[in-house]
């Protein structure tokens, strides 16, 4: 409920809340700028001195006002015309126009009333109300996420967007609550919803017969420092019994200009003082540093909005579809999920529903935010974890195994782990295995031995669910019906064929970008935004199990390109390599952020063989900044399967590709790509010493041979693939 209260106002009113916070942050700069720019009154200057200086310069002075920033403005009426100016209190001379600068007026109007009238004011107030709702619900959610109020300052866990959202919220929430509450108060007072209890001194009349005294003869003027002045009104020359009126923080007094006597006095009421403090807290006038801090806090709103939106999208994709998710603090069984592509969430949902039906209080959430303190009543933990790369964690769960290994004490509730993977990878369920080892290292009790699910096998899952049921003493026998991924239709526009002569029939297939709705474009969903190296899942006809291919293009190229080799008997590769322009396939996008060149100007050594050149070609095509990219490409024969052979010369000419080395295994000297690397050892070492990154894409055997060769070539431990990997400078996309 609380989450909904946080999410929907956030999403619906994002634009309005953003506008208010950014304009608020801009306006917070003005009071400080004003304080720094206007001359301040000397500490010894009295109201009498100031009044005299101004009157000398402008005998027709009607009023002097001093703002909290120290800015003194005088109004006068002389020779039949009114005038006003900012005054230098040291001389009484004019130093500028009192009208606010265009920027200040514009941003104030935008902030207060969206450049409209009362309708804008009410909308802005609604924005402030929503900000208050978001901040208040966010406060409780942060406390919940951290595992209680006493852990408010504990370290935030999880993927970057989640951490950033929590950290910023902790920094800014107090300021946002203050600004929205004070903003609401100010709008309410504009609409007279707050009683005006300002007290005025009782009316009084001056003795009309007396000539006005010099200001320093008036005791109150001589005693009051000019720094305490708020407003001084002079008597109207047309009304002989009119009085002087002096307003300071302490109150307002009416004074007889002829006798210097105070005729009446009023101190401000509680409400008036409260209103003043609220005005100061909201505008920063009179509290400029606080204003700047509040402005800085407001600036966190755009980032909070964006990271919150990212979390909503991630939750919508997976977690939000978990029905009857019990609060973490009340859960008996906690199911934690580490997934990249989302299919493991589908299994988690089946498990969640099965356990709930069996009468358990179950909470299912992402492993990335795991913190045992969030689950004080947990009796059992279950981790469902997919594996990526070479036995590595899905992107969001990186670092969790290391954290688990350091848990002291380990949770008392026993743990069951189920790994999801693919037996054709050498590190089958390698990440789940690392988690199991980490749990052992921490001394976390095992509920049952680790289970595995190969290629999302429903049978494997059912078998494991029975074992889990036995361990929990519950009748579990779960059937998982995989959800068909939501696909889009891709139409082939062109194909280039290679390799038939060397028994490696391969095609570069180029599809048109599917049409995107405006919403998909704005939110970057599906094919709206992707990079070379991301994956496309293709659902072949006759199967609900997707096959993944690395993308050889980015959305900026305006097409979707993949390289496919036809495997004997391969269902998907067979269908793809038979496509003709105009034919369609069903596909969906899966981001692969772990395989991207680092942003830097340093060289990149691209190593690929066969269809593995696809994403590498995509990086080269996208290399508009002409970073030095060196491609080592293993093929069978230059006459037959040199994929992108027609493009390399142009890319080299355009500066997109700095070096190209091919190694052909079925012609001439029978070279493999690792032989080409060995021949270039000197050059490679120099590039690595210059901070180069290595990216390898292709078959598993090729990748292993490349790793071994580079290990041989490395002269120092710092250049070894293991060290480079740990630094994120050695990336592999292997199949
Ligand atoms: C790029 C890529 C790399 C993978 N690497 C491994 C691996 O090293 N070991 C393994 O057992 N499974 C590996 N898999 C298989 C996935 O772990 C498996 O398909 C899992 O069910 C995906 O779950 P998810 O959709 O929840 O992310 C890999 C899959 C892909 C697409």
From TrEMBL:
Residues 333-469 form the Flavodoxin-like domain. It is an enzyme of class 1 (oxidoreductase). The keyword Protein biosynthesis does not apply. InterPro entries: FAD-bd_FR_type, Flavodoxin/NO_synth, Flavoprot_Pyr_Nucl_cyt_Rdtase, Flavoprotein-like_sf, FNR_nucleotide-bd, OxRdtase_FAD/NAD-bd, PepSY-ass_TM, Riboflavin_synthase-like_b-brl. CDD domains: SiR_like2. Its EC number is 1.6.2.4. The keyword Membrane applies. Residues 485-598 form the FAD-binding FR-type domain. One of its GO terms (cellular component) is cytosol. This is NADPH--hemoprotein reductase. It comes from Rhodobacter aestuarii.
């Amino acid at each position: 409920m609380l989450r909904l209260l946080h999410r929907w106002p956030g999403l619906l009113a994002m634009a309005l809340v953003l506008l208010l916070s950014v304009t608020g942050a801009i306006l917070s700069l003005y009071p400080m700028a004003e304080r720094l720019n206007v001359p301040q009154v000397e500490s010894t200057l009295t109201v009498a001195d100031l009044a005299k200086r101004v009157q000398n310069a402008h005998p027709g002075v009607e009023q002097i006002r001093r703002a909290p920033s120290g800015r003194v403005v005088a109004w006068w009426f002389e020779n039949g015309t009114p005038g006003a100016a900012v005054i230098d209190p040291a001389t009484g001379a004019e130093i500028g126009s009192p009208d606010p600068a265009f920027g200040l007026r514009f941003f104030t109007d935008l902030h207060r009333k969206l450049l409209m009238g009362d309708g804008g004011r009410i909308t802005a107030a609604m924005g402030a109300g929503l900000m208050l709702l978001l901040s208040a619900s966010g406060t409780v959610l942060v406390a919940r996420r951290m595992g209680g109020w006493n852990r408010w300052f504990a370290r935030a866990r999880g993927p970057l967007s989640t951490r950033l959202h929590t950290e910023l919220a902790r920094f800014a929430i107090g300021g946002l609550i203050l600004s929205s509450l004070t903003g609401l108060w100010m709008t309410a007072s504009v609409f007279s919803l707050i009683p005006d209890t300002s007290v005025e001194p009782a009316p009084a009349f001056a003795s009309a017969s007396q000539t006005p005294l010099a200001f320093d003869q008036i005791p109150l003027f001589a005693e009051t420092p000019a720094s305490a002045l708020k407003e001084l009104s002079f008597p109207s020359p047309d009304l002989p019994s009119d009085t002087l009126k002096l307003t300071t923080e302490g109150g307002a007094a009416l004074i007889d200009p002829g006798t210097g006597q105070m005729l009446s006095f009023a101190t401000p009421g509680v409400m008036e003082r409260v209103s003043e403090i609220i005005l100061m807290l909201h505008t920063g006038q009179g509290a400029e540093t606080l204003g700047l801090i509040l402005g800085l806090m407001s600036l966190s709103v755009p980032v909070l909005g964006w990271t919150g939106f990212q979390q909503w999208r991630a939750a919508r994709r997976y977690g939000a579809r978990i029905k009857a998710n019990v609060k973490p603090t009340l859960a008996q069984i906690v199911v934690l999920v580490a997934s990249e592509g989302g299919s493991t969430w589908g299994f988690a949902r089946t498990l969640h529903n099965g356990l709930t039906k069996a009468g358990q209080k179950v909470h299912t959430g992402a492993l990335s935010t795991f913190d045992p303190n969030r689950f004080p009543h947990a009796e059992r933990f279950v981790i469902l974890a997919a594996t990526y790369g070479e036995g590595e964690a899905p992107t969001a769960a990186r670092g969790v195994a290391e954290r688990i290994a350091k848990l002291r004490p380990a949770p008392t509730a026993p743990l069951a782990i189920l790994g999801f993977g693919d037996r054709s990878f050498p590190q089958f369920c390698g990440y789940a295995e690392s988690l199991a080892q980490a749990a052992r290292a921490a001394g976390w009790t095992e509920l049952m031995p680790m289970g595995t699910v190969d290629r999302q096998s429903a049978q494997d899952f059912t078998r494991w669910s029975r074992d889990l049921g036995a361990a929990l003493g519950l009748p579990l026998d779960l059937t998982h019906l995989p959800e068909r991924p939501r696909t889009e239709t891709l139409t082939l526009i062109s194909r280039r064929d290679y390799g038939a002569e060397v028994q490696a029939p391969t095609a570069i297939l180029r599809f048109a970008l599917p049409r995107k709705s405006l919403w998909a474009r704005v939110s970057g969903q599906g094919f709206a935004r992707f990079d070379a190296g991301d994956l496309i899942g293709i659902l072949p006809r006759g199967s609900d199990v997707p096959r993944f291919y690395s993308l050889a293009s980015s959305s900026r190229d305006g097409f979707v390109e993949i390289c496919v080799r036809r495997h004997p008997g391969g269902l998907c590769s067979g269908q793809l390599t038979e496509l003709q322009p105009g034919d369609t396939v069903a596909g969906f996008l899966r981001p692969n952020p772990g395989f991207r060149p680092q942003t830097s100007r340093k060289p990149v050594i691209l190593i690929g063989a066969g269809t593995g050149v696809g994403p590498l070609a995509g990086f080269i095509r996208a290399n508009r900044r002409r970073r030095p990219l060196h491609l080592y490409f293993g093929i069978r024969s230059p006459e037959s399967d040199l994929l992108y052979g027609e493009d390399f010369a142009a890319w080299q000419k355009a500066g997109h590709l700095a070096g190209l080395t091919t190694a052909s295994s079925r012609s001439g000297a029978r070279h493999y790509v690792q032989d080409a690397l060995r021949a270039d050892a000197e050059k490679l070492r120099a590039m690595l010493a210059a901070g180069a990154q290595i990216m390898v894409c292709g078959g598993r055997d090729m990748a292993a041979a490349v790793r071994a060769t580079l290990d041989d070539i490395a002269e120092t431990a710092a250049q070894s693939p293991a060290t480079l990997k740990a630094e994120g400078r050695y990336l592999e996309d292997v199949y």
